[in-house]
Design a protein that fits this description.
By secondary structure, the chain is of the alpha/beta class. Helix content is 37%, strand content 22%. One of its GO terms (biological process) is L-valine catabolic process.
């Protein structure tokens, strides 16, 4: 007897509803090809209804006391913690990453929820008294209206939690479009958000592909759009939404580099490089996909390969798994094609991860750790973001040469250096052109007290997600200049200057 495949619902005005869409996509377990659910590509009417609900809810939500907003997120972080195991299992089933990495995905989003609970301090303005005779000036940070978020498949918990908690805590309402490839954990997080007390219409969820993205960019009632995903789509979103008069922030593709100096702690450096290159099967915008080995560090390649060869490839729910499957059959085919092009274009294949033997998962989208040396610009494996477990090794004679090599790449999401020299580390952080710098830290994504600060071709828009910058993104600064006269006081004559004397 067959079991009906569940459908992923829309969230509109506080109700989880069955879409009337005629076009649907399967949510597939990438380790087994089992169809877990079906997700709709929402209709135009459904998208408009979600935005209308958010617009209506904004009228009252914007006036909700800041303490009441904060308490919702205090409750929400508690619910996420209580349901961590369930959330991680759901994430692993639909996305493929290991259970441990899935918990990390959720936890990094949870940190932003905790930060949102501190909105009372974060949203404070400024004041100066007697800026002129009897004149005070102060600023307030007011909510801007309906905001929208478009999130990618690789972090279906963390990145939605980067977006809607901060936007809503600031007094806005939100329309979320998660990835149609793995929306189930996102929807469970949304259920918990409603359970925490987010009112009807304040948070809405639609599903879809290109048409839904364009609808978000074009809708006149959406004031701001936050996007994380590929450079191609992010560039389109930024241009289209900006032309429609919206605030836009787009975190996009990357090609992150690390420098390994010969004075680095060898085991620490190699272990960190491998974890950052191959964790989540390389499907991270902050993955270390290029390592520049300086001087004698080039002799460490055999040990790097040996350590990579020992990493366990299996389903994400299997104990001890280091590398799970890629998100889809198409992603696997693309990664394998790029590996083939790397060989054809002259890079040396030190470790081939194609067609690994994964007992019990013959139909999974697996590619094992793959390492190339002798990689140069102009090769597809260097010029393209592979988004798979492929590590490119580059040789440099000096630190100056290594920094110049990194600065020649147009992307600037993150970079790292492994060294025991404070002087070398300081030189690196001063001269390298990337937004986020790691010193003996392979993936330098900052905690939410600070802002995510990707740069170059990895980012469009001035303000990053979470941290201090996102408060500015999700609020409008109003400056008020006020003078109060005492009863009975007599003002002077007409003043036609711009002075406040």
């Amino acid at each position: 007897m067959s079991t009906a495949i569940p459908t992923v619902k829309l969230l509109i005005n506080g109700e989880f509803i069955e879409s009337t869409a005629t076009e649907w996509r399967d949510v597939v377990n990438p380790a087994t090809q089992q169809v877990l659910a079906r997700v709709p590509l929402a209709t135009t009417a459904e998208i408009n209804a979600a935005v209308a609900a958010a617009k209506s809810a904004f009228k009252t939500w914007r006036r909700t006391p800041i303490g009441a907003r904060a308490r919702i997120f205090l409750k929400y972080q508690q619910l996420i913690r209580e349901n961590m195991k369930e959330l991680a299992a759901l994430l692993t089933a639909e996305q493929g990453k290991t259970l441990l990495d899935a918990e990390g995905d959720i936890f990094r989003g949870l940190e932003v929820v905790e930060h949102a609970a501190n909105i009372g301090t974060l949203q404070m303005g400024e004041m100066a008294s007697n800026v002129a005779s009897g004149v005070d000036t102060y600023t307030v940070q007011q909510a801007i209206g309906v905001c929208a978020g478009i999130t990618p498949f690789n972090f279906p918990a963390m990145i939605p939690l980067w977006m809607f908690p901060m936007a809503i805590a600031c007094g806005n309402t939100f329309v979320l479009k998660p990835s149609e490839q793995d929306p189930m954990v996102t929807m469970r997080l949304v259920e918990l958000a409603l359970q925490a007390g987010i009112p009807a219409g304040v948070l809405n969820v639609i599903h879809g592909g290109e048409a839904a993205v364009n609808a978000i960019c074009d809708h006149p009632d959406i004031r701001a759009v936050s996007f994380v995903g590929s450079t191609r789509v992010g560039t389109h979103v930024y241009q289209r939404a900006s032309l429609a008069g919206k605030r836009v922030q787009c975190m996009m593709g990357a090609k992150n580099h690390a420098i390994v100096l010969p004075d680095a702690n060898k085991d620490q450096a190699l272990n960190n490089v491998l974890g950052a290159a191959f964790g989540a099967a390389g499907q991270r915008c902050m993955a270390l996909s290029v390592v520049v080995l300086v001087g004698e560090a080039n002799s460490w390649i055999p040990e790097l390969v040996q350590k990579a060869r020992a990493m366990k490839i299996s389903g994400g729910a299997e104990p001890g798994t280091d590398i799970g499957p890629l998100i889809s059959c198409a992603a696997k085919s693309r990664v394998e094609r790029l590996i083939g092009q790397g060989i054809e274009q002259g890079a040396k294949l030190e470790l081939d991860g194609r067609q690994p033997d994964v007992p019990g998962y013959a139909s999974g989208n697996f590619v094992g750790p793959t390492i190339f040396s002798g990689v140069k610009p102009g090769m597809d494996i260097y010029d393209e973001e592979i988004f798979g477990p492929v590590l490119a090794l580059v040789s440099a004679a000096t630190l100056d040469e290594a920094v110049a090599f990194i600065n020649g790449n147009p992307n600037g999401n993150g970079t790292a250096i492994f060294t025991q020299s404070g002087a070398a580390a300081r030189k690196f952080q001063e001269e390298v052109e990337a937004g986020q710098i790691g010193i003996n830290v392979p993936i330098p994504v900052p905690v939410p007290l600070f802002s995510f600060t990707g740069s170059g071709a990895s980012k469009l828009g001035d303000l990053g997600p979470y941290g201090k910058q996102v408060i500015l993104f999700y609020t409008q600064t109003k400056t008020v200049t006020a003078r109060w006269f005492e009863d009975g006081s007599v003002a002077g004559g007409v003043n036609t200057t711009i002075s406040l004397k």
